[in-house]
Write a structure and sequence with these properties.
Blueprint lengths: L8 E6 L2 E6 L4 E5 L1 H11 L4 H11 L4 H17 L5
Protein name: Lasso peptide biosynthesis PqqD family chaperone
Pfam families: PqqD
Organism: Streptomyces crystallinus
Length: 84
């Protein structure tokens, strides 16, 4: 499933990943390089399987762990209200 950030979320790329700013609360979130890759794939309209494939291809991680990371990140972004 593709991902989109809420309208009040600003993003900035850093040397260490991505920073998200929730303009409603003033809270910052920092995404590490793995989370940044996952978000980039999902924001491009691709699904969780494509994000998992990208993580496996980019990092030294097995597919099962990559899938868990993708699922957990999506859940955390949605629960926090950052993404839909």
């Amino acid at each position: 499933m593709a991902l989109r950030f809420a309208a009040d979320i600003s993003t900035a790329q850093t040397d260490y990943g991505t920073v998200l700013l929730d303009e409603r609360s003033g809270q910052y979130w920092e995404l590490n390089p793995t989370a940044t890759l996952i978000v980039e794939v999902l924001l491009a309209g691709k699904d969780e399987a494509a994000a998992t494939d990208a993580v496996v291809a980019e990092f030294d991680i097995d597919r099962e762990r990559a899938q868990q990371d993708v699922t957990q990140l999506i859940a955390e972004l949605r629960v926090s209200g950052l993404a839909a």
